[in-house]
Amino acid sequence: MTVAVFFGCTFIAFGPAVALFLFTIARDPLRVIFLIAGAFFWLVSLLLSSLVWFITVQISNKNSASQQRGLLIFGVVLSVLLQEAFRYGYYRLLKKANEGLLALSQEDTMPISMRQLAYVSGLGFGFMSGAFSVVNILSDSLGPGTVGIHGDPQHYFISSAFMTLAIILLHMFWGVVFFESCERQRWWALGAVVISHLVVSCLTFVNPHYQGSLIPTYIILSVMAAWAYLCAGGSLRNLKLCLTCKDKDFLLANHRPR
Amino acid sequence: MNTSDSEEDSYNERSALVQSESPTIPSYNQDHDMSLPQETDTKRRRPVSSGLSEPGPVEREQASTPDGEEEELTLKYGAKHVIMLFIPVTLCMVVVVATIKSVSFYTEKSSQRLIYTPFEEDPNSVGQRLLYSLLNTIVMISVIVVMTIILVVLYKYRCYKFIHGWLILSSLMLLFWFSFMYLGEVFKTYNVAMDYPTLVMIIWNFGVVGMICIHWKGPLRLQQAYLIVISALMALIFIKYLPEWSAWVILGAISIYDLIAVLSPKGPLRMLVETAQERNEPIFPALIYSSAMVWMVGMADSSNTDSADDRRRNEGGARAQEGVESEDDAAQGGRRRYSAEEDLEEDRGVKLGLGDFIFYSVLVGKAAATGGDWNTTLACFVAILIGLCLTLLLLAIFKKALPALPISITFGLVFYFSTDNLVRPFMDSLAAHQYYI
Fold first, then answer.
1. Does the global pTM surpass 0.95?
2. Chain B 65-124, residues with CB within 8 Å of chain A CB atoms
3. What is the CA angle A89-A95-A99, rounded to 5?
4. Which residues of A touch B389 (CB under 8 A)?
5. CA distance B328 to A10
6. I need a surface site. Which of A234, A253, B68, B312 has the fewest CB within 10 A?
7. What is the C-alpha to C-alpha distance for residues A73 and A79, in angstroms, rounded to an integer?
C-alpha cells in the first residue's frame, strides 16, 4: 500500500508539471536555466518569510496554541505577499536582461520571448513550491505507518497531492498573467493575481474539510487557466483550429522537409 | 568593457592546450578554476557588455555571422554549455543522495578517521568541538596546499613519470578499492547474496574499463560516466569520514583557498595553468570531466593556430584521497577544468574539474545525511546550480581563470543553514496543519 500511495501521489502531484517540463522546456537550455533561476527566486522569498516567522515565534508565547496558529496564518499571508513581490522582482530582472541583450544585438528578436519567460518562470516557481510542500510528505508515505490514527483525516496524502498539483499549475498560470499584466501595465490584473494567490492559500486554512479548500481551488485553477490562455494569445478560434488539426501554422511548423 | 588588443596579442602567443597522451598532474586538491576560452585570431572579438545581467555565459563565436545573430548564438551556446555542466553535476549529486538515503553505511559514524582530520570531535562540548574542527580544517588545508605546491614543482621540473604514476595509483584506488567497498555495502543493504568469483569479475571489469577510459581513450559517454562515478565515490568517502563540524568548516575553507589559489598572482593553481599554457600542454587530462569529444592527440596541428586564442581554460583540480587507514602516501588527484577547442564542430566542449563535482556532492550529501528533511537537500541543490550558473556567467564576462567553488559553496552553505534552521520549522508547521503557501 505504501509504495502504491507513494507513486500515485507523486504522479498526481508532479505528473503534469514534469510532462510540461519534458515536452516544452527540456530541449531548450536557455529555458532550463530560467526555470532554475525562477525556482531560486521562490526559494529566496521562502527564506525571507521563514526568517520573519521564526523571529516572531521566538518572541512570542510558545505555549499558547492559538497564538502560534495566528502567527502561522500571519506567516502564510506574508509568504504569499513575498512570493509575489519576488515574482515582480524576477520580472524586472528579466526585463533588464532582455533590454541589455537587445541593445547589444542589432537584431530585433531575442532568443527567448517575454511570454516564454513568463511561462518558464511561473513553472519554476511552481516546481519549487510544489516540491517544498509535498516532498517530505511523499517520503513519509513510502514508509510504514497508519494515516489518521488519532482521528486525523484519512485522506491526507491524496489531498496533499491534489493540492500540490493545483498549486504548481496555478503558479504557472499566475506567472503568465502576471508578466503579461506587467507588460501591459494593467495593474488591476496584477492585483487580481495576488488576491487569487491569497485566496487559494487562505482556503487551505479550513483544511481537514477538503471540500472547502480543494473544490474552490480547482475552480480558481480553471479560471486562471482560461485567463492565462487568453493572455498568451489563445482564443476560441485557435483552440478549435488546434483541436481539429486545421491550424496551418502549427502544421507547417512541424512539417518535416523531405 | 572591451577586451583589449593587448589581451588578444598575448593570447595569440599562446597555443591551444593540447591533450597529450600522458596525463600530467595527478593530485592536488582543488583547483577549481574556470576560465573562458579566448578567441582565436580568426574570430573577431566582440566586446562583452559588462552590464549584462542575463543568466548564462556569453561567449564569442565565429565572426562570420552578423553581430546580433552572433550575440544570440553566443547566448544560446553559452546556455548549452551551462546545461552540459548542469547535467553531470546533477547526476553526481543524485547518485550521492540516493546512496546516502538508502545505504546506511555512509551515514554511520565510525571511530576511524582520515589522517587528515586527526582531532576527534567531542559531541558534548561545543567549544572544544569548534576548536577541534578548526584545527582539523587547518591540517586538511595545509595538506592540500603542500600537495598543490609539490604538484606545481613536479610539473615545473617536468617529472611527468612521477605525476603519471601518482595519478594512476589514485585512480586505481578509486576504481577498485572504493567501488568494491561501495558494492559490498549496497549488497548488504539490499540483502543480495553474492559470491566472490562473480564479484571479482564485476570489479575487475569495472576497474579495467575505467582505467582505460579515463587514462587512455574510450567512448565519451563512458568516460563521463566513470568520472561521475568516481567523483561520487570520493564524495561518499568524505561524507563518511569527515567529522560533522569539520566537514562544514573544511567546505568553507576550501572555497576560500580555491579563490586565493586561482586568482592571486602567486597562487599555485594559476602558476600551474600558466606553465601548462607556456608549454602548450593540457593539464590533468585524466581527472577532468569533459563534455565534448576532445581526446584527439593530433589536434594541435591544423586547429592549433585557430584554437590558439580561442581557448577556454577552466581549471579545477580533482582530488582522490586514499583510504581510511593511516597510509602515508595519499594520492590526490588534481583537478583542472579547461575546455579544449573543437574546431570541427561548433560545439565547444566544456570541462569541469572533478574536485568541483566532489565538493558539490559532499555539500548536498551532508545536507541529505543530516536529518530526514528533503527540503534542505533540494534547497542546497538549487543553490549550487545557481552558483555554477553565476560562475559561468562571470567566466563569460571576465574570460580568465576563475575558481568554481566559492560562489556555489557559499550559496550552498547559506541555504543549508538557513533552510535547516528557519525554513524547516516553518514548513513542518504548515504541513502539520496542511496549510499551503
1. no
2. 66-72, 75-76, 79-80, 82-83, 86
3. 150
4. 33, 36-37
5. 49
6. A253
7. 10
Quick one: closest CA in A to B426, which residue?
Answer: A50
Q: Which ipTM value was assigned to this complex?
A: 0.92
Q: Å from B66 to nearest chain A CA?
A: 9
Among candidates A96, A107, A205 on the partner chain, residue whose Cβ is nearest the Cβ of B435: A205
Nearest CA distance, B368 vs chain A (angstrom): 12
Residues 6+ apart with CB under 8 A from B135: B119
Closest residue on chain B to A127 (Cα): B378
pLDDT tens for chain B, residues 1 to 437: 333 444 444 333 333 322 233 333 333 333 444 433 333 333 333 333 333 333 333 333 333 444 555 555 666 667 888 899 999 999 999 999 999 999 989 888 877 778 888 888 878 888 888 999 999 999 999 999 998 899 889 888 988 888 889 889 999 998 999 999 999 999 999 999 999 999 999 999 999 999 999 888 889 899 999 999 999 999 999 999 998 889 999 999 999 999 998 888 888 888 888 888 888 877 666 677 887 754 443 333 333 333 333 333 333 333 333 222 222 333 333 333 333 333 334 455 677 888 899 999 999 999 999 877 899 999 999 999 999 999 988 888 887 778 999 999 999 999 999 999 999 999 999 998 899 99
A204 contacts in B (CB within 8 Å)? 434-436
The answer to whether residue B436 neighbours chain A at the CB level (below 8 Å) is: yes
Which active-site residues of B does the annotation give?
Answer: 258, 356
Q: Are A31 and A94 in contact (CB under 8 A)?
A: no
Q: Give Cα separations from A11 to A161, B66, B382 (angstroms).
A: 9, 46, 22
Hey, is the C-beta of B383 within 8 angstroms of any chain A C-beta? yes
B interface test, pick of A45, A66, A72, A105 with most B CB neighbours within 10 Å: A105
Q: Cell numbers of B246, please?
A: 569539520
Collapsing DSSP states into helix, strand and coil, what is residue B24?
Answer: coil
The number of beta carbons lying within 10 Å of the beta carbon of residue B287 is 34
Torsion of CA B57, B58, B61, B64, to 10 degrees: 150
